[in-house]
Amino acid sequence: MENIVSSIIAIVEQMEVKTQEQFVIAVLDRLSFFGYEASCNDDWLIAFCIQKVINHIMNSCNTNYLPNGLFFVAVDRVCGEFLYSINSSGKLELDNIDLSGSIKEIVEGDITLKFSDASSDAEKFSILVDYLKNEGASDEICYRKLKW
Q1: From CA 7, how far away is CA 20, in angstroms rounded?
Q2: 49 vs 11, 19, 46, CA distance in Å?
């Protein structure tokens, strides 16, 4: 894991915005949580997704830094962008992604709360990626600054 962390940091350092090592580790840990083990072949794409998400948040908030309160929002968005990208390119095996934790519905007495009607792994994966890519949109507003 150290090889990929240092490789991603080296790529990100060449870009305009500096990213802390803790952020890269959090992204890799989050991907691992979903069952995807990143390799050195993923370093450029992960670095690209990090820069894309951080730049989007900074532009949306009109800041030149990633607000601390949006750290985990950014981690989830990077994971969503990354998983979407590798799935779109056909390099992702959905069998390797853990989708068992997705809840379909909760029944309590005579009340039923449905979260999703997704039955296939592809549908569950799509819902997961959409969630990750759009995570924290309302949180971003809290850090928005006016631009004159």
Answers
A1: 13
A2: 12, 12, 5
pLDDT of res. 127: 83
Q: pLDDT by residue (tens digit) across 102-133? A: 555 556 666 665 655 656 778 888 888 888 89
Distance CA 92, CA 31 (A): 13
Q: What are the structure tokens assigned to 96, written together?
A: 């390797």
SS3 of 80-106: HHHHHHHHHCCCCCHHHCCCCCCCCEE
Cβ atoms of 125 and 35 within 8 Å: the answer is no
Is residue 14 over pLDDT 80? Answer: no
**pTM of the predicted structure, to 2 decimals:** 0.76
Q: Which sign does the torsion angle of CA 130, 30, 135, 11 carry?
A: negative
d(CA 31, CA 83): 8
Q: Do the Cβ atoms of 99 and 67 come closer than 8 Å?
A: no
Which of 59, 54, 44, 67 shows the shortest CA–CA distance to 18? 54
3-state secondary structure of 108: strand
- In the chain, domain spans: 2-142
